[in-house]
Amino acid sequence: MISNILSRKNRILFRELVITDFKLRYQGSALGYLWSILKPLFLFAIMYFVFGYIFDLRGDVPYFPVYMLIGIVLWSFFTEATTQGLQAIVARGDLIRKINFPKYIIIVSGTTSALINLFFNILVVIFFVVITGVPITWAAILLPLLVVELYIFALALAFLLSAVNVRYRDVGYLWEIVLQAMFYGTPILYTMSYVMDKSLLIAQIMLLNPVAQVIQDARYVVVSDKTVTSWQLLDQGLGFVPVVLVGVILLIAALYFRSTSKYFAEYV
Known about the structure:
Layout: H1 2-25, H2 35-54, H3 64-91, H4 93-98, H5 104-131, H6 143-167, H7 171-184, H8 192-198, H9 200-206, H10 210-222, H11 230-233, H12 241-260, H13 264-267
Helix pairs in contact: 1-5, 2-3, 3-5, 3-6, 3-7, 3-10, 5-6, 6-10, 6-12, 8-9
């Protein structure tokens, strides 16, 4: 009975944290929740003009606008989820000191808020798919599985980063640098065929990154089956590396978070 009550309290706390995070994010802004859609759209418009027309990195990719938009939307989610997760424990220091509850709820609620934003952005992607005439195939039903993989990866990093950030506040600045490097090292603004023309080895290394793997697979199932994926470019055994990497990082992050969470109240 007691465990059931505690579980119910945890669910209520989780729900309130998600609602609060989502509301506070746009509190005081004139457009409110619309920014969750407008921000990636503005980024897409700028990047498409610069890299699609000025540098002309479109190549022979069909439906390049949707191709690029999917990459930006998924990347924006990954950035938001990890950044929010990194700051979550420190930001909720008052709550941690006053209430005894499982600390992982704070991380999961923060990343769930980012997941809600992703849902709205995917609706925008669907709108562009329809108006640009992208052929919709049965492969598109695999998109939710790819989103789940990306969410688990972002959640794992959020657990790890948030726990380290409690003791070492430099982590936030370092993660900004890592994200910037990952952004340009992930095929978001350009195609994998462009990289393959320069170096096949570099292309293979890039697709070991779970974010790059998910983005390319999402483009494959939604936009075009001509999209280069990790399963095609890597050897058969190495094709599983990004997925395995997600599982390994999640295990390490969960163990580290659990071992350090009992000390959070002392440092926040």
